[in-house]
Structure formats: C-alpha cells, structure tokens
Amino acid sequence: MLELDTPHGPARAHPHLVDGASTVLVLGHGAGGGVTAPDLVAATQTANEAGVSVYLIEQPYRVAGRKSAAPAPQLDAAWTAVCAGLPIEGLTLLVGGRSSGARVACRTAEAVGAAGVLCLAFPLHPPGRPEKTRLPELEGVKVPVLIVQGESDPFGMPPEAPDRTVVRLRGNHSLRSDVNGLRAAVRSFLG
C-alpha cells in the first residue's frame, strides 16, 4: 500500500500490479463504500488478467475514518494529486471508479491525462430526482468512456453517445447480480 499526500490529507493506493504492464487503471470507491466493493474487486481481477496494472484509491476522508464523502472540489483535488503521485510515468493511464468515484474520474479525466474512463454504476441523478442530472459530468469527458450500469439502478441510466458506451446489466446500483457481465464489459474496454 502507498500513502500519498493530497491537499486534503493522505490518500491510500492499493496496488495490484502486473509485470510488464503498459497500461494502468486507477479506480476510486463510492461515497459510502471502500475499495473492497465487489464490482471494484471484479474489475481489478479482470484488468490484471488482461495485463493491466490497477491502483485502488482510498480518498482522504475514508483514510481519516469519515463515512460522509467530502465535497466534489476536495475529492477532485485529492484524486488529481494521487494520480500525479503514483509511479506510473510512461504508462497509458485509464481512470474510473464506482458511483461517486466514477464522477470524480469523469470530472478530472482531462486534468490527469487519462486515455479512457471506466464508470461502474454512474449515478446520473439522485434517486427519484431525474431533474438533478449529472449528465454534464459525462459530457465533459473527451476520451472514450465505458459505463457499466444496472438496469434497475435508482440513480438512473446514462445515455449512450459518441465515445460513450453503456453496458446494461441485470440488477441495481450494486452491480452484484451479473459479475460475469461486468467482467466481460471491462475486458472488452481494456482489450
């Protein structure tokens, strides 16, 4: 595990490295969860099997033991600092995460120089509040995006667009109902 300084306290990077990898995938957790979420574990295993190294990132608020997510500007600043501090120079950088972590990855993709974004259960809007859309966060991404989304996710279903693929799986926001489908989608994205 690596501890990395950020403007908002230390973050932790959990490495899952592959010898000779030319690509690294940096993944963040959801607002109330951690890096052991089943979909993050499945994505990490699939990436490693595809020859891609992975860093699972714990945001500073989680490292400090807080359960409530920090405000978006703090999350983004910490994420950008983490990506700059990882030993990944010369590697193709992909970023992503689940839920809140996917939002952070989208908002910072250009700033960190990402070549692609992997979103697991992107929360398009708060449950029951489609008017509070977060679609601009997706539309601001200028590199290819893969969104893996449960068909009955109460946070909504993001639309497809040029350079944005949406894979619909049975299940909800947890993405636990179709791990094989999740793994296939990630494998295709990395392939």
Automatic annotation (TrEMBL):
Q: Which residues form the KANL3/Tex30 alpha/beta hydrolase-like domain?
A: 23-160
**What Gene3D superfamilies has UniProt attached to this entry?**
alpha/beta hydrolase
Q: Per its UniProt entry, which superkingdom is the organism in?
A: Bacteria
Record key words, sorted: Hydrolase
The answer to whether the entry has keyword Hydrolase is yes
Q: Does the keyword Nucleotide-binding apply?
A: no
Question: What GO molecular functions are on record for this protein?
Answer: hydrolase activity
Q: Which PANTHER family match?
A: TESTIS DEVELOPMENT PROTEIN PRTD, TESTIS-EXPRESSED PROTEIN 30
Instruction: Kindly provide the name given to this protein in its UniProt entry.
Output: Alpha/beta hydrolase
